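From the thread on structure requests for the teaching lab: each student submitted one protein with a one-line request. Submission from student K.M.:

"Model Glucosamine-6-phosphate isomerase from Ruficoccus amylovorans, tokens only."
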Amino acid sequence: MSRPISKLAPAWWDYTTLDPAILNDAARLSARDLTQLSRPGFSVRIYDTPQEFYAAQALEYLEAWRESTPDNPVGICGPIGPTEHLPLVAQMVNAMRFDLGRHEAHFWGMDEWLIDGETVSPKHPLSFARCDNELCFDRIESALAMPEANKHFPTGDLEAYSASYDTVRCAIMQGGQGEVKHWAFNDPLMREGAYTDVPPTPDEYRSLGTRRVKLHPVTVMQNARTSGGGNVSMVPTEAVTVGPRETWKADCVSIWHPGHHDNPFGIRLTAFMIANSIMDTAVPMSLLADHPNVRFSYLRSGIGEVAVEMH
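Reply posted by the TA:
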């Protein structure tokens, strides 16, 4: 039986091409049901307040960096979206007098925009590296600062960026979830060539490393909404992203759901698919079902309901 055509972008794969039974089962999940999806290798946590939620996200940076030593360097890969935790990371480092240089701590940015075939500079208003620096690293006291060589952004030599995951242990790869069900910019692929009638297999998608990507139209719309006041014309349509190949080198994948990146349905769907080991590359996040240590963290007020409510 052929797969449905996407309701969102007919030239692409996405979650609207799934079996409707999967979509319906996910839509019925309550907040209590979400916590019961936890299984070995996949845990679900719910935080009652924004303060607890973003503090917990920030603490994961410190947890990773505390494991690092000059002989065995350790780092964390962090997202832009959410970003509210980043100033808290700097505040915690300063308050604890935690010397990132002495510990040989590392950080990876997970993606960056492409314009005219080149990654944007840190001066670009939408630059993710700029956001990481302005909201976090520039706020850390100079005596405690991370050496520039220990910050890895997916710009320039992408092979060197990818290889850094082999020389430094990534204790945690954090992420948010986009409306197209991606982490980083691991979007569904276009329906073309070998993938016109069926999407890539999970094994094919998992083999993808750090790379340049064309963005799903839903991702462009989402970033206009969350980062540009809805001005789609200012959002690039291509990017560089960390890939599944690097993701599977992380000890833990930690996904944070504040409720304003994806919607109540989406943040249920991916948890349902991971918990039940339903892997489909039309929903890239579902492939994390095969990773040995995945955490989903929700802000209770952002879970919402999947119900008809006219506005």
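TA comment: The chain has a mean pLDDT of 96. The radius of gyration is 19 Å.
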